[in-house]
Every structure is written in structure tokens, then in C-alpha cells.
Amino acid sequence: MNRFYRLYRKEIYLYLYSLCGDAGLAEDLSQETFLKALLSLGDQHSNIRAWLYMVARNLYFNHYKREKRNVPLEKSYEICDESETMLERLIAGEERRRLYRALGSLDRNKREVLQMQYFGGLSQKEIAVILQTTPENVRILAFRAKQKLRVLLGGTNT
To answer: Where in the numbering of this chain does the RNA polymerase sigma-70 region domain appear (predicted)?
Structure first.
């Protein structure tokens, strides 16, 4: 199980962070995800990565339901290189905020598909298992989500 923790802890944390926008909560839910894996999953599981994402997703939504609070859309983490100028950091921060707001305006399924693809690096087949749908539906959701993001961010809709 330690091997799985080393392999997947960072991507599970980033996935949870992309859902909640709160570093502390993402860390807590990541730890809880791996605790559940340790207690209930053997090393022989066929797709532990997809299972971890499903557990993390369920923990987040359970927490969200318990707390009955809105996911903060304005929060985004900034990783700044020391060589960047203040103007570059401001522009990059504004671009991240715009992207985060645009992601937040998508419906939940479309947003989750993009988060799992780009933050988690999951395949459409893995996402389909997690969301309990078909890979074709995941492909369509991703396509439509990217189309809407292009419109929201000022790109073309072609």
C-alpha cells in the first residue's frame, strides 16, 4: 500500500484541490482516501488508481453535503517562479482565476471530466468507470466542456 501512496498521493491531492480549492481540506481528504484504501483494498485490485479517484470524489461530495457550503470559486493556488516579474505574476494569476471561474460555471459532470483528465491524467475509460457512464459519453462531455470553455474564455466556437 505504501507503494500506491507514493505513486498516487500527489495526483489525488491535486484532483481534490481542483474540486474544493482548499489546500487543507484537499490534504485531509487525500489522507482519508488512502486510509480507506489501506483498510479495505488489497494490492491485487485491478485498477487501484481509478478506485482511489472514485473514493476521493465520494469523500469530497460527502464532505460537501455535510458542510452545505459553496465551493469557493475565487481560490486558486499560485506557483510562481522567482524570475517572473510582478506584472507576469499578476497576468498569470488573472488567467488562472478566469480559467477557474470558467471551470466553475460548467455543469458538474463536464467539470469533473476535465478535472480528471487534466489534473488527474485519467483516461476516458477510467473516468467512465468512476462516473459510471460510457467512455463515449465521457468523450462527448469533454468535447462539450472544452467548447464551452473556449466561448467563456473568449476563444472561437469552431
So the answer is: 4-69
